[in-house]
Model the fold of this input.
Amino acid sequence: MCTKLKTDPINGLPNEKSLLEARRRIFGRNEIPAVPSKSFLRLAWEALQSVNRLAFAAAIRRFLLDELSLRKKMVRFVILALMVH
Done:
């Protein structure tokens, strides 16, 4: 790795300004680019989207369970009606 980066593992980088400038041109600056931060409204919107998804999933689940319960009641009623008839 040191040979690929052209550095000395014991002494590190050279102190000569021309060599440092050449390294900067070849390898680029050693800094992480700043990422724009999200606004409070954006963060709040993203949080609400998560809550909305959970509420939507809960509503679908409730609807399906109610539908299943209604079917069971209808089947029981039909069976009872056939038995009584």
